[in-house]
Design brief:
The chain is α+β, with helices and mostly antiparallel strands. It is built from seven helices and eleven strands. The protein is globular and about 55 Å long.
Length: 236
């Protein structure tokens, strides 16, 4: 409610659905980053969604529709929930999946327990992993303005996380994922994706890149510095 003049504003509301009033407020600034992103639930952009009764007979992935398994939505107190009532009304008040380890892979849609089809904030997708010598792959594309970097992370589990990571390789961002980013109007963030049969498949779209402060390698520091300078592209 308190407007402070500035050259640029980065919109970051830590929710999967951004209330309209925040985007309207941000539009008053001359340069607005991520000002057109209102919904990053998987159901808003996934091309792999399945419904009960679909004829798909391959393996399926059951996971949270909300970003970060709905953790940010659960963290808000009563006063914030009241302010965000218009957005919270779009979401289930009790997310059933609280962490990535709650996600499940099933051999077929018919094996998915009935309860998952009626649970709020849960999506069922085709399970389409990228493999490398028997291990699972996730590609991370991080970007700001005209700068972007990508890594290919190889792990032992379908949920490729730091605890299951074997190695991480810096790669060039795939042209198709760059195009998807522009179509979705993202200025800053991180996309998790795979490449199968030469085709990019987007798994997650995030409004931040995530960060850690321990064990930062010179390579990671260089990638962060390179991306940070993408901020200047908005002032050209």
């Amino acid at each position: 409610r308190d407007f402070r003049a500035a050259d640029l504003i980065l919109v970051h509301i830590d929710l999967s659905v951004v209330p309209d009033q925040y985007l309207e407020f941000a539009s008053r600034y001359p340069i607005v980053l991520n000002g057109k992103i209102s919904d990053i639930r998987k159901s808003a952009y996934s091309k792999q969604l399945l419904q009960k009764g679909d004829s798909y007979d391959g393996p399926v992935f059951v996971k949270s529709d909300l970003n970060f398994a709905g953790g940010p939505e659960r963290n808000f107190g009563p006063s914030i929930r009241q302010v965000l009532s218009s957005a919270m009304a779009k979401l289930s008040s009790k997310p059933k999946m609280r962490k990535a380890s709650d996600y499940r892979v099933f051999n077929s849609l018919s094996e998915v327990p009935e309860e998952y089809f009626s649970m709020g904030n849960v999506v069922i997708e085709k399970f389409l992993p990228e493999m490398d010598d028997g291990h699972y792959v996730i590609r991370n594309y991080q970007f700001l303005g005209d700068r972007g970097t990508a890594t290919k992370v190889i792990g032992t589990d379908p949920m490729v996380k730091s605890r299951t990571e074997i190695k991480s390789i810096e790669i060039d961002p795939d042209p198709e994922i760059i195009e998807i980013r522009h179509v979705m109007n993202f200025d800053y963030g991180k996309f998790d994706y795979v490449v199968r049969d030469g085709k990019v498949i987007l798994f997650d779209a995030n409004k931040t890149t995530g960060a850690h402060t321990k064990g930062i390698s010179p390579q990671l520091q260089a990638m962060r510095k390179y991306r940070a300078e993408g901020l200047y592209s908005y002032f050209k």
